[in-house]
Amino acid sequence: MAERVVITGGAGFIGSHLARRCVAEGLDVHLIVRPSSSLHRLAGEIDRLTVHTADLGDEPRLRALLARIAPDRVFHLAARTRGADAADTLADARNLLLLLQLLAEQDRPPSVVVRTGSIAEYGTGPLPYREDQHEEPETPYAVAHVIGTEQLRRLASMLTFPVVTVRLALVYGPGQSEDFLIPAMIRRCLEGQPLTVRHPDDRRDLLHIDDAVEGLMQLSEAKLMGHTVVNLATGVAPSMREAAKLVLAATGADPALVTLSDTQPGRTPSELRAAPDLAQSLVGWKAALNLADGIEKTVSAMRSHDRIAA
Q: Which of 119, 134, 78 has the alpha carbon at shortest distance from 231?
């Protein structure tokens, strides 16, 4: 019998890529998505997995689903992202606690729960971010994840299954919303449209989706104990100026399309960069794609998608 996997937020960017990987490995894949979620990222896979609609705050519905599925592994990816406010922060924290509670009630608890967070949780802390340093989050999105991590630190000894908190660098790749910088730059360059990079000297640790999924899978199979926080990051933070040049090279677009804004007076460029050492020591994971290769791969996938759509 195939191992059963539950992915919350499975219709999202990272969740859909993870779902495809799990299907390819022959796992029995169950996605829990909001009733309003679009399934467009799962085109071609719907018949090979099971989609369940539920609000993660709906305790009776979630309890019934988990009891019926009886998952072996759980990936908890569902969270608010852009535009999150205090109410969203509290809801995400409650949803994590409820999920853990209901999994703990199972007659046969899962072998592991892997939950995703962000290196943004480290906020203004020293670079490169390391798992043992104190978090200094600056946004409601980051605060919600830190609250969840703190809850797990206190609950870990009482849970009958291990939990891995995976702090992801800024993940990019095919299927990501074009509200995000890398796919937005690629799209506009492919269509010959002008674009402005507002903070070209900001630096970001950028991780291709294939590397992120590989890390999530490896950590779910690592048989860790208790609660473990692990960064999945490249350890390198190119500037957005450098990223724009790589997009121009990969698309062959006219460099005149891209305008790099001057740094605003009094504003210090920001940097998000995490150390990947722990992931490598625990499971041998390291990012396989550098940014140039990752952008090339993303551009190729977006061009292929455009040809199919046409």
A: 119
